[in-house]
Specification:
Blueprint (H helix, E strand, L loop, with lengths): L5 E8 H5 L16 H9 L4 E5 L7 H6 L3 H10 L27 H13 L3 E6 L3 E3 L4 H4 L9 H6 L4 E2 L9 E2 L12 E3 L5 H15 L4 E4 L7 H15 L8 H12 L4 E4 L6 H6 L4 E3 L1 H8 L3 H7 L4 H5 L1 E4 L8 H5 L1 H13 L2 E6 L24 H14 L2 H4 L2 E4 L2 E2 L11 E8 L2 E8 L5 E5 L9 E6 L5 E5 H6 L2 E5 L4 E5 L1
Parallel strand pairs: 1-2, 1-12, 2-3, 3-8, 8-9, 9-10, 10-11, 11-12
Antiparallel strand pairs: 4-7, 5-6, 13-15, 14-17, 15-16, 16-21, 17-20, 18-19, 18-21
Helix pairs in contact: 8-10, 12-13, 16-17
Protein backbone atom coordinates (compact mmCIF):
# COMPACT_ATOMS: atom_id res chain seq x y z
CA UNK A 1 0.00 0.00 0.00
CA UNK A 2 2.92 2.35 0.59
CA UNK A 3 3.49 2.90 -3.16
CA UNK A 4 0.01 4.31 -3.71
CA UNK A 5 -0.10 7.94 -4.79
CA UNK A 6 -3.67 8.29 -3.57
CA UNK A 7 -4.85 6.60 -0.37
CA UNK A 8 -8.26 6.77 1.28
CA UNK A 9 -9.25 6.99 4.94
CA UNK A 10 -12.64 6.33 6.54
CA UNK A 11 -13.18 7.73 10.03
CA UNK A 12 -15.69 6.11 12.39
CA UNK A 13 -16.85 7.62 15.69
CA UNK A 14 -16.71 4.16 17.25
CA UNK A 15 -18.93 4.54 20.32
CA UNK A 16 -21.65 6.26 18.29
CA UNK A 17 -21.29 3.87 15.35
CA UNK A 18 -21.85 0.78 17.51
CA UNK A 19 -25.29 2.03 18.53
CA UNK A 20 -26.40 1.26 14.96
CA UNK A 21 -25.99 -2.45 15.77
CA UNK A 22 -27.60 -2.55 19.22
CA UNK A 23 -30.37 -5.08 19.84
CA UNK A 24 -33.03 -5.25 22.52
CA UNK A 25 -30.91 -7.86 24.27
CA UNK A 26 -27.55 -6.08 24.35
CA UNK A 27 -25.45 -3.15 23.29
CA UNK A 28 -23.22 -3.94 20.33
CA UNK A 29 -19.46 -4.25 20.57
CA UNK A 30 -16.94 -4.03 17.77
CA UNK A 31 -17.12 -7.69 16.69
CA UNK A 32 -20.91 -7.38 16.37
CA UNK A 33 -20.44 -5.20 13.29
CA UNK A 34 -21.27 -7.45 10.34
CA UNK A 35 -18.48 -8.48 8.00
CA UNK A 36 -20.51 -7.02 5.12
CA UNK A 37 -19.95 -3.50 6.43
CA UNK A 38 -16.16 -3.84 6.23
CA UNK A 39 -16.41 -5.73 2.94
CA UNK A 40 -18.42 -2.87 1.44
CA UNK A 41 -15.72 -0.36 2.45
CA UNK A 42 -13.17 -2.57 0.71
CA UNK A 43 -15.29 -2.66 -2.43
CA UNK A 44 -15.38 1.13 -2.39
CA UNK A 45 -11.59 1.17 -2.40
CA UNK A 46 -11.13 2.32 1.21
CA UNK A 47 -7.50 1.70 2.22
CA UNK A 48 -7.60 2.73 5.88
CA UNK A 49 -10.17 2.77 8.69
CA UNK A 50 -9.69 4.98 11.74
CA UNK A 51 -11.68 3.88 14.77
CA UNK A 52 -11.94 7.17 16.64
CA UNK A 53 -12.55 6.92 20.38
CA UNK A 54 -11.32 3.42 21.24
CA UNK A 55 -9.75 4.25 24.57
CA UNK A 56 -11.14 3.94 28.08
CA UNK A 57 -12.15 7.20 29.73
CA UNK A 58 -12.64 7.79 33.47
CA UNK A 59 -16.39 7.99 34.11
CA UNK A 60 -15.81 10.68 36.73
CA UNK A 61 -14.97 13.19 33.99
CA UNK A 62 -18.58 13.20 32.79
CA UNK A 63 -20.14 14.90 35.82
CA UNK A 64 -17.04 16.99 36.54
CA UNK A 65 -16.31 18.39 33.10
CA UNK A 66 -18.93 17.47 30.50
CA UNK A 67 -22.03 19.13 31.91
CA UNK A 68 -21.20 22.82 32.03
CA UNK A 69 -23.79 25.21 30.66
CA UNK A 70 -21.92 25.94 27.40
CA UNK A 71 -21.54 22.27 26.53
CA UNK A 72 -25.16 21.54 27.40
CA UNK A 73 -26.25 24.35 25.07
CA UNK A 74 -24.16 22.74 22.32
CA UNK A 75 -25.67 19.33 23.07
CA UNK A 76 -29.18 20.73 22.81
CA UNK A 77 -28.45 22.41 19.47
CA UNK A 78 -27.26 19.08 18.06
CA UNK A 79 -29.79 16.79 19.70
CA UNK A 80 -33.22 18.33 20.15
CA UNK A 81 -34.41 15.66 22.61
CA UNK A 82 -31.12 15.69 24.54
CA UNK A 83 -30.95 14.18 28.03
CA UNK A 84 -28.07 13.89 30.51
CA UNK A 85 -27.91 10.16 29.82
CA UNK A 86 -26.68 10.95 26.29
CA UNK A 87 -23.37 12.32 27.62
CA UNK A 88 -20.68 9.62 27.57
CA UNK A 89 -17.56 11.76 27.97
CA UNK A 90 -14.85 12.98 25.63
CA UNK A 91 -12.86 10.30 23.75
CA UNK A 92 -9.86 12.65 24.08
CA UNK A 93 -9.82 12.59 27.88
CA UNK A 94 -8.44 9.07 28.28
CA UNK A 95 -7.39 6.96 31.26
CA UNK A 96 -4.63 5.27 29.27
CA UNK A 97 -4.23 3.27 26.06
CA UNK A 98 -6.67 0.61 27.24
CA UNK A 99 -9.54 -0.49 25.00
CA UNK A 100 -12.84 0.84 26.29
CA UNK A 101 -14.65 -2.29 27.56
CA UNK A 102 -17.90 -0.92 26.13
CA UNK A 103 -16.29 -1.31 22.69
CA UNK A 104 -14.60 -4.65 23.22
CA UNK A 105 -11.30 -6.14 24.29
CA UNK A 106 -7.76 -5.99 22.97
CA UNK A 107 -8.32 -9.46 21.52
CA UNK A 108 -11.42 -8.16 19.70
CA UNK A 109 -9.42 -5.32 18.16
CA UNK A 110 -6.67 -7.70 17.04
CA UNK A 111 -9.33 -9.96 15.54
CA UNK A 112 -10.88 -7.03 13.68
CA UNK A 113 -7.47 -5.97 12.40
CA UNK A 114 -6.94 -9.42 10.87
CA UNK A 115 -10.32 -9.15 9.16
CA UNK A 116 -9.60 -5.67 7.81
CA UNK A 117 -6.09 -6.59 6.67
CA UNK A 118 -7.52 -9.59 4.79
CA UNK A 119 -9.68 -7.08 2.90
CA UNK A 120 -6.70 -4.85 2.15
CA UNK A 121 -7.62 -2.27 4.80
CA UNK A 122 -5.30 -0.82 7.45
CA UNK A 123 -6.59 -0.16 10.98
CA UNK A 124 -5.83 3.16 12.73
CA UNK A 125 -6.36 4.33 16.32
CA UNK A 126 -6.00 7.67 18.12
CA UNK A 127 -2.71 8.73 19.64
CA UNK A 128 -3.46 11.69 21.89
CA UNK A 129 0.03 13.09 22.21
CA UNK A 130 -0.67 16.24 24.21
CA UNK A 131 -2.46 14.92 27.29
CA UNK A 132 -4.25 12.28 29.33
CA UNK A 133 -7.46 12.72 31.32
CA UNK A 134 -7.26 14.92 34.39
CA UNK A 135 -8.86 11.96 36.17
CA UNK A 136 -6.31 9.41 34.89
CA UNK A 137 -4.67 7.13 37.44
CA UNK A 138 -1.37 7.96 35.71
CA UNK A 139 -1.34 11.21 37.69
CA UNK A 140 -0.70 9.06 40.76
CA UNK A 141 1.39 6.27 39.26
CA UNK A 142 3.47 8.40 36.85
CA UNK A 143 3.31 12.04 37.99
CA UNK A 144 6.75 12.67 36.49
CA UNK A 145 5.35 12.70 32.92
CA UNK A 146 2.99 15.63 33.53
CA UNK A 147 3.72 19.35 33.52
CA UNK A 148 4.16 20.50 37.14
CA UNK A 149 3.13 23.95 38.34
CA UNK A 150 3.31 25.85 41.62
CA UNK A 151 0.59 25.83 44.26
CA UNK A 152 0.11 29.57 43.73
CA UNK A 153 -0.83 29.06 40.10
CA UNK A 154 -3.62 26.68 41.08
CA UNK A 155 -4.91 29.20 43.61
CA UNK A 156 -4.79 32.07 41.10
CA UNK A 157 -6.11 30.17 38.07
CA UNK A 158 -8.00 27.00 39.02
CA UNK A 159 -9.39 26.82 35.48
CA UNK A 160 -5.99 26.16 33.89
CA UNK A 161 -4.21 24.35 36.75
CA UNK A 162 -5.22 21.74 39.31
CA UNK A 163 -4.28 19.51 42.21
CA UNK A 164 -5.64 16.10 41.15
CA UNK A 165 -5.15 14.26 44.42
CA UNK A 166 -5.87 17.09 46.88
CA UNK A 167 -2.66 16.18 48.68
CA UNK A 168 -1.07 19.64 48.63
CA UNK A 169 1.94 18.10 46.89
CA UNK A 170 1.41 17.65 43.17
CA UNK A 171 0.06 20.49 41.05
CA UNK A 172 -0.29 20.23 37.29
CA UNK A 173 -1.42 22.08 34.19
CA UNK A 174 -4.48 21.12 32.24
CA UNK A 175 -3.83 20.42 28.55
CA UNK A 176 -4.32 23.30 26.16
CA UNK A 177 -3.92 24.81 22.74
CA UNK A 178 -2.12 28.20 23.10
CA UNK A 179 -4.98 30.06 21.37
CA UNK A 180 -7.82 28.73 23.54
CA UNK A 181 -8.62 28.20 27.23
CA UNK A 182 -7.43 24.99 28.89
CA UNK A 183 -9.26 21.71 28.41
CA UNK A 184 -10.22 21.06 32.04
CA UNK A 185 -10.80 17.35 31.53
CA UNK A 186 -7.14 16.84 30.53
CA UNK A 187 -3.68 16.83 32.15
CA UNK A 188 -0.77 18.24 30.15
CA UNK A 189 2.23 16.03 29.32
CA UNK A 190 5.62 17.69 29.78
CA UNK A 191 7.50 17.27 26.51
CA UNK A 192 10.61 18.95 27.93
CA UNK A 193 10.96 15.96 30.29
CA UNK A 194 12.97 13.01 29.02
CA UNK A 195 10.92 10.66 31.21
CA UNK A 196 7.69 11.91 29.62
CA UNK A 197 9.10 11.54 26.12
CA UNK A 198 10.26 7.99 26.77
CA UNK A 199 6.90 7.13 28.33
CA UNK A 200 5.02 8.36 25.25
CA UNK A 201 7.39 6.61 22.86
CA UNK A 202 6.75 3.38 24.74
CA UNK A 203 3.02 3.94 24.22
CA UNK A 204 3.59 4.39 20.50
CA UNK A 205 5.65 1.21 20.36
CA UNK A 206 2.78 -0.60 22.08
CA UNK A 207 0.29 0.75 19.54
CA UNK A 208 2.56 -0.17 16.63
CA UNK A 209 2.31 -3.82 17.67
CA UNK A 210 -1.51 -3.73 17.44
CA UNK A 211 -2.45 -1.24 14.72
CA UNK A 212 -1.27 -0.30 11.25
CA UNK A 213 -1.16 3.39 12.05
CA UNK A 214 -2.21 6.22 14.34
CA UNK A 215 -4.03 9.48 13.83
CA UNK A 216 -2.15 11.88 16.10
CA UNK A 217 -4.37 14.43 17.82
CA UNK A 218 -3.05 18.03 17.61
CA UNK A 219 0.40 16.77 16.61
CA UNK A 220 1.99 20.23 16.38
CA UNK A 221 1.50 20.97 20.09
CA UNK A 222 4.53 18.83 20.98
CA UNK A 223 6.95 20.74 18.72
CA UNK A 224 9.66 22.39 20.79
CA UNK A 225 8.90 25.97 19.75
CA UNK A 226 5.12 25.52 20.15
CA UNK A 227 5.52 23.87 23.54
CA UNK A 228 7.98 26.58 24.62
CA UNK A 229 5.68 29.41 23.55
CA UNK A 230 2.64 27.81 25.21
CA UNK A 231 4.27 27.11 28.56
CA UNK A 232 7.27 29.48 28.69
CA UNK A 233 6.80 30.89 32.21
CA UNK A 234 5.99 27.51 33.78
CA UNK A 235 8.92 25.79 32.05
CA UNK A 236 11.29 28.50 33.24
CA UNK A 237 10.06 28.21 36.83
CA UNK A 238 10.44 24.43 36.70
CA UNK A 239 13.94 24.60 35.25
CA UNK A 240 12.94 22.84 32.02
CA UNK A 241 14.67 23.66 28.73
CA UNK A 242 14.04 22.55 25.18
CA UNK A 243 15.63 19.20 24.22
CA UNK A 244 18.08 19.16 21.33
CA UNK A 245 15.85 17.08 19.09
CA UNK A 246 12.15 17.25 18.36
CA UNK A 247 10.05 14.57 20.03
CA UNK A 248 8.57 13.48 16.73
CA UNK A 249 11.94 12.98 15.09
CA UNK A 250 12.93 10.51 17.80
CA UNK A 251 9.48 8.92 18.16
CA UNK A 252 8.88 8.27 14.46
CA UNK A 253 12.39 6.88 13.91
CA UNK A 254 12.09 4.62 16.95
CA UNK A 255 8.70 3.23 15.95
CA UNK A 256 9.59 2.77 12.30
CA UNK A 257 12.81 0.97 13.21
CA UNK A 258 10.56 -1.57 14.94
CA UNK A 259 7.70 -1.50 12.40
CA UNK A 260 8.75 0.19 9.12
CA UNK A 261 5.23 0.05 7.69
CA UNK A 262 3.58 1.83 10.61
CA UNK A 263 1.78 4.98 9.42
CA UNK A 264 1.69 8.36 11.18
CA UNK A 265 -1.18 10.68 10.23
CA UNK A 266 -1.13 14.02 12.02
CA UNK A 267 -3.84 16.54 12.81
CA UNK A 268 -1.79 19.67 12.09
CA UNK A 269 -2.61 23.37 11.68
CA UNK A 270 -0.86 26.78 11.66
CA UNK A 271 1.17 26.08 8.49
CA UNK A 272 3.24 23.49 10.37
CA UNK A 273 2.27 20.63 8.06
CA UNK A 274 5.58 20.58 6.20
CA UNK A 275 7.52 20.63 9.49
CA UNK A 276 5.71 17.50 10.70
CA UNK A 277 6.20 15.82 7.33
CA UNK A 278 9.91 16.65 7.55
CA UNK A 279 10.03 14.98 10.96
CA UNK A 280 8.66 11.73 9.54
CA UNK A 281 4.87 11.99 9.38
CA UNK A 282 3.43 10.04 6.48
CA UNK A 283 0.36 12.29 6.26
CA UNK A 284 -0.80 15.62 7.69
CA UNK A 285 -4.19 17.34 7.63
CA UNK A 286 -4.79 19.75 4.74
CA UNK A 287 -7.14 22.21 6.43
CA UNK A 288 -6.17 24.91 3.92
CA UNK A 289 -7.88 23.03 1.11
CA UNK A 290 -10.96 22.40 3.27
CA UNK A 291 -11.28 26.11 4.01
CA UNK A 292 -10.84 27.10 0.36
CA UNK A 293 -13.46 24.57 -0.70
CA UNK A 294 -15.90 26.14 1.76
CA UNK A 295 -15.80 29.30 -0.35
CA UNK A 296 -15.81 29.51 -4.14
CA UNK A 297 -12.11 30.30 -4.00
CA UNK A 298 -11.10 28.55 -7.21
CA UNK A 299 -7.94 30.59 -7.75
CA UNK A 300 -6.86 29.77 -4.21
CA UNK A 301 -7.60 26.07 -4.75
CA UNK A 302 -5.49 26.07 -7.92
CA UNK A 303 -2.63 27.85 -6.15
CA UNK A 304 -2.76 25.36 -3.29
CA UNK A 305 -2.63 22.42 -5.70
CA UNK A 306 0.60 23.78 -7.15
CA UNK A 307 2.51 22.81 -3.99
CA UNK A 308 5.39 20.37 -4.40
CA UNK A 309 4.43 16.80 -5.17
CA UNK A 310 6.08 15.52 -1.97
CA UNK A 311 3.82 17.77 0.10
CA UNK A 312 0.69 16.82 -1.81
CA UNK A 313 1.35 13.10 -1.56
CA UNK A 314 1.38 13.47 2.24
CA UNK A 315 -1.69 15.71 2.52
CA UNK A 316 -5.00 14.51 3.95
CA UNK A 317 -7.87 15.99 1.91
CA UNK A 318 -11.18 16.17 3.77
CA UNK A 319 -14.54 17.91 3.69
CA UNK A 320 -15.58 16.85 7.18
CA UNK A 321 -14.48 14.94 10.27
CA UNK A 322 -15.60 14.84 13.88
CA UNK A 323 -14.26 18.39 14.45
CA UNK A 324 -15.72 19.96 11.30
CA UNK A 325 -19.30 20.78 10.29
CA UNK A 326 -20.97 18.23 8.03
CA UNK A 327 -20.26 18.90 4.34
CA UNK A 328 -23.91 18.84 3.23
CA UNK A 329 -24.74 21.35 5.95
CA UNK A 330 -22.20 23.99 4.93
CA UNK A 331 -21.87 23.26 1.20
CA UNK A 332 -25.23 21.88 0.15
CA UNK A 333 -25.66 18.71 -1.89
CA UNK A 334 -24.39 19.76 -5.33
CA UNK A 335 -21.42 21.77 -4.09
CA UNK A 336 -20.45 18.95 -1.72
CA UNK A 337 -20.46 16.56 -4.68
CA UNK A 338 -18.11 18.82 -6.64
CA UNK A 339 -15.83 19.18 -3.61
CA UNK A 340 -15.88 15.39 -3.10
CA UNK A 341 -14.74 14.86 -6.69
CA UNK A 342 -11.83 17.23 -6.07
CA UNK A 343 -10.59 15.57 -2.87
CA UNK A 344 -11.12 12.10 -4.35
CA UNK A 345 -9.13 12.59 -7.54
CA UNK A 346 -6.04 14.57 -6.48
CA UNK A 347 -2.87 13.26 -4.85
CA UNK A 348 -2.59 12.43 -1.15
CA UNK A 349 -5.12 10.82 1.17
CA UNK A 350 -8.83 11.20 0.44
CA UNK A 351 -10.59 11.30 3.81
CA UNK A 352 -14.25 10.48 4.52
CA UNK A 353 -16.28 10.51 7.74
CA UNK A 354 -18.94 7.94 8.62
CA UNK A 355 -22.31 9.40 7.62
CA UNK A 356 -20.81 11.63 4.90
CA UNK A 357 -21.94 9.31 2.11
CA UNK A 358 -25.48 9.21 3.47
CA UNK A 359 -25.80 12.99 3.87
CA UNK A 360 -25.79 13.43 7.65
CA UNK A 361 -26.16 17.14 8.45
CA UNK A 362 -25.57 17.46 12.18
CA UNK A 363 -22.10 17.91 13.65
CA UNK A 364 -22.37 16.06 16.95
CA UNK A 365 -20.21 16.97 19.98
CA UNK A 366 -17.82 14.08 20.68
CA UNK A 367 -19.12 13.79 24.25
CA UNK A 368 -22.51 12.52 23.05
CA UNK A 369 -23.38 8.87 22.59
CA UNK A 370 -26.54 9.29 20.54
CA UNK A 371 -27.24 11.12 17.30
CA UNK A 372 -30.51 12.52 15.94
CA UNK A 373 -32.53 10.50 13.48
CA UNK A 374 -31.96 11.49 9.87
CA UNK A 375 -33.22 10.37 6.49
CA UNK A 376 -30.58 8.94 4.17
CA UNK A 377 -30.03 11.07 1.09
CA UNK A 378 -30.23 8.29 -1.50
CA UNK A 379 -29.06 10.58 -4.29
CA UNK A 380 -25.88 11.46 -2.39
CA UNK A 381 -25.31 7.86 -1.30
CA UNK A 382 -25.53 6.68 -4.92
CA UNK A 383 -23.16 9.45 -5.99
CA UNK A 384 -20.50 8.47 -3.44
CA UNK A 385 -20.85 4.78 -4.26
CA UNK A 386 -20.28 5.56 -7.92
CA UNK A 387 -17.47 8.06 -7.28
CA UNK A 388 -15.50 5.74 -5.02
CA UNK A 389 -15.84 2.86 -7.44
CA UNK A 390 -14.42 5.14 -10.14
CA UNK A 391 -11.53 6.29 -7.96
CA UNK A 392 -10.72 2.79 -6.68
CA UNK A 393 -9.19 2.10 -10.11
CA UNK A 394 -5.40 1.74 -10.21
CA UNK A 395 -5.17 4.86 -12.35
CA UNK A 396 -6.19 6.90 -9.28
CA UNK A 397 -4.36 4.80 -6.70
CA UNK A 398 -1.03 4.63 -8.52
CA UNK A 399 -1.26 7.05 -11.45
CA UNK A 400 0.48 10.35 -12.04
CA UNK A 401 -1.38 13.64 -11.56
CA UNK A 402 -1.18 16.86 -13.56
CA UNK A 403 -2.98 20.17 -12.98
CA UNK A 404 -4.15 21.67 -16.28
CA UNK A 405 -4.56 25.30 -17.30
CA UNK A 406 -7.95 26.59 -18.39
CA UNK A 407 -8.46 29.26 -21.04
CA UNK A 408 -11.28 31.57 -22.07
CA UNK A 409 -13.68 30.14 -24.62
CA UNK A 410 -14.01 33.61 -26.22
CA UNK A 411 -12.33 36.94 -25.56
CA UNK A 412 -14.85 38.40 -23.11
CA UNK A 413 -15.54 35.22 -21.15
CA UNK A 414 -14.09 35.12 -17.63
CA UNK A 415 -15.98 32.08 -16.34
CA UNK A 416 -13.05 29.84 -17.30
CA UNK A 417 -11.55 30.89 -13.97
CA UNK A 418 -14.27 28.83 -12.24
CA UNK A 419 -13.13 25.58 -13.86
CA UNK A 420 -10.66 23.15 -12.33
CA UNK A 421 -9.09 20.54 -14.58
CA UNK A 422 -6.49 17.84 -14.05
CA UNK A 423 -5.29 14.54 -15.46
CA UNK A 424 -4.60 11.18 -13.87
CA UNK A 425 -2.68 8.71 -16.02
CA UNK A 426 -1.13 5.28 -15.65
CA UNK A 427 0.01 2.61 -18.14
CA UNK A 428 -1.47 4.36 -21.17
CA UNK A 429 -4.84 5.01 -19.51
CA UNK A 430 -6.08 8.56 -18.83
CA UNK A 431 -8.73 10.25 -16.72
CA UNK A 432 -9.55 13.89 -17.37
CA UNK A 433 -11.33 15.49 -14.40
CA UNK A 434 -13.14 18.80 -14.96
CA UNK A 435 -15.15 20.62 -12.26
CA UNK A 436 -17.08 23.87 -12.40
CA UNK A 437 -16.56 24.95 -8.81
CA UNK A 438 -18.87 27.95 -8.87
CA UNK A 439 -22.52 28.93 -8.67
CA UNK A 440 -22.71 30.10 -12.29
CA UNK A 441 -22.69 28.27 -15.60
CA UNK A 442 -19.09 28.35 -16.83
CA UNK A 443 -17.14 27.42 -19.93
CA UNK A 444 -13.48 26.97 -20.80
CA UNK A 445 -10.97 25.57 -23.21
CA UNK A 446 -8.56 22.97 -21.83
CA UNK A 447 -5.41 21.91 -23.64
CA UNK A 448 -3.86 18.48 -23.07
CA UNK A 449 -2.03 15.86 -25.11
CA UNK A 450 -4.49 13.52 -26.90
CA UNK A 451 -3.72 9.82 -27.42
CA UNK A 452 -0.78 9.26 -29.77
CA UNK A 453 -1.49 8.33 -33.39
CA UNK A 454 -5.23 9.06 -33.29
CA UNK A 455 -6.89 11.78 -35.39
CA UNK A 456 -10.08 11.38 -33.38
CA UNK A 457 -10.71 9.80 -29.99
CA UNK A 458 -13.63 9.14 -27.67
CA UNK A 459 -14.09 10.71 -24.25
CA UNK A 460 -16.37 8.62 -22.01
CA UNK A 461 -17.80 10.46 -19.00
CA UNK A 462 -17.72 7.91 -16.18
CA UNK A 463 -20.23 9.95 -14.16
CA UNK A 464 -23.07 9.51 -16.67
CA UNK A 465 -21.64 7.18 -19.36
CA UNK A 466 -22.11 9.75 -22.14
CA UNK A 467 -19.53 9.62 -24.94
CA UNK A 468 -18.01 12.42 -27.01
CA UNK A 469 -15.83 12.09 -30.11
CA UNK A 470 -13.18 14.82 -30.36
CA UNK A 471 -10.51 15.83 -32.87
CA UNK A 472 -6.90 15.60 -31.65
CA UNK A 473 -5.71 18.57 -33.72
CA UNK A 474 -8.39 20.81 -32.22
CA UNK A 475 -7.45 19.72 -28.68
CA UNK A 476 -3.79 20.61 -29.30
CA UNK A 477 -4.49 23.95 -30.98
CA UNK A 478 -7.61 25.38 -29.34
CA UNK A 479 -8.24 23.01 -26.45
CA UNK A 480 -11.25 20.94 -25.43
CA UNK A 481 -14.37 23.08 -25.12
CA UNK A 482 -16.45 22.42 -22.00
CA UNK A 483 -19.53 24.11 -20.59
CA UNK A 484 -20.82 23.11 -17.18
CA UNK A 485 -23.74 24.12 -14.98
CA UNK A 486 -22.97 25.23 -11.40
CA UNK A 487 -20.98 22.58 -9.46
CA UNK A 488 -21.22 20.02 -12.25
CA UNK A 489 -18.30 17.81 -13.28
CA UNK A 490 -16.88 15.39 -15.83
CA UNK A 491 -14.58 12.45 -15.22
CA UNK A 492 -13.57 11.49 -18.73
CA UNK A 493 -11.86 8.20 -19.56
CA UNK A 494 -9.80 7.83 -22.73
Amino acid sequence: MGNKRTQSMYEINTRLFLREYDTKEKKAKILDVPFQFWENLSRLGIDNVWLMGLWQIPKSTINKYCLDIFLIDEYKRSLKDFSIDDVIGSPYSIEDYIINPEIGTLYDIKTLKKTLNSLGINLFADFISNHFSSESSLLKSNPEIFLPVSKNLVANDPYSYFNPTNDNKNYFAHGRDPFFPAWKDTAQINYFSEKARNFMIDKLLFLSEIFDGVRVDMAMLTLNNVFQNTWETILKEGGFSAPEKEFWEIAVQTVKSSNPNFIFMGEVYWDLEWELQRLGFDYTYDKTLTDRLKGNFVIGIKEHLQATEDFQLKSVRFLENHDEPRAVHYLGVEKSKAAAIIISTILGMSFYFHGQFEGEKVKLPVQLGRKPHFSINENLKSFYTYLLKITSDDIFKYGEWLLLDTFASWSTDVTYRNILAFLRFNNGQFRLIIINYSNETSSARIKFEPPEGKREFVLTDLLDNNQYTRNSTEIRSDGLYVKLSPYQSHIFAY
